[in-house]
Amino acid sequence: MRLYVGFTAFQTFIDPADIGRLRAKVGEKVQAWQEAGKLETGGIFAGNRKGFVVLNAASEEEAFELLGDLADFAVVETYPVVSFETLGKFFAENPPSS
To answer: What are phi and psi of 11, to 5 degrees?
Structure first.
């Protein structure tokens, strides 16, 4: 299952030491996702404390393992990603009712 994960770092991180720890933690998460082959794409939005990733998770348990501690330092929004191929198949198999 592909998941879009949007995250916004808590605005309470203002102390330089806290910001350094936040940056290190995000770097560790990204590296772990990459090494596990779970990161499809991602990036940050210039000029603010927001970013996103698209992750591949085999189950809800794995999704929780991949994301669980992200909520300790960011507001997290997660949505399942459906491909256009899957959407097209759904449309073909489920035409609008008249």
So the answer is: -75, -10
What's the number of CA atoms in the CB half-sphere (13 Å) around residue 85? 0
Residue 37 region, left (φ>0) first, then alpha (ψ -120 to 50), else beta?
left
Give the model confidence (pLDDT) of 60-79 as tens digits.
Answer: 999 999 998 899 999 999 99
pLDDT less than 50: residues of the chain: none
Q: How far is the C-alpha of 88 from the C-alpha of 54, rounded, in Å?
A: 21
Instruction: List domains and CATH numbers for the chain.
Output: 2-93 (3.30.70.1060)
What is the sign, positive or negative, of the torsion defined by CA atoms of 9, 10, 11, 12?
negative
Cβ-based neighbour number of residue 60 at 10 Å: 9
